[in-house]
Amino acid sequence: MDTLVVLHEARGGQWATGLNLGDLSWHTLRTRRAKHGNGRFDPAPARRGFDPRDDARLHARLWQHLRTRATFTAPARALDPTPVTCTLNAAALDQLRGRQVLGAAERHRRRLT
Fold this sequence. Notes:
It is a single chain. By secondary structure, this protein is mainly alpha-helical. It has helices spanning 3-10, 21-29, 52-69, 90-96, 104-112; strands at 71-74, 84-87. Helix 2 (21-29) crosses helix 3.
């Protein structure tokens, strides 16, 4: 299940910016995405210094917040800097909770629209 597909739909379609892990975690959880993980892991250059283990922990916190509070805050459109708070409907919550499973073709169709 792709969390960003669910959030794009909840926000009213794809917007130009603002639905990446860094922006969502900052606006929703007030937590910055960490650079350079703790430990002996050396992130690949393609990850721009972000540790995938820290990203996984941050995504788990965000996912738990979405499941329990059913809201998220994301940056608004490029010309309007005001953050927008969106509420997840019952169908989106069912997807996040694993009660409604979409096939790959349906996920792809929704992502494109």
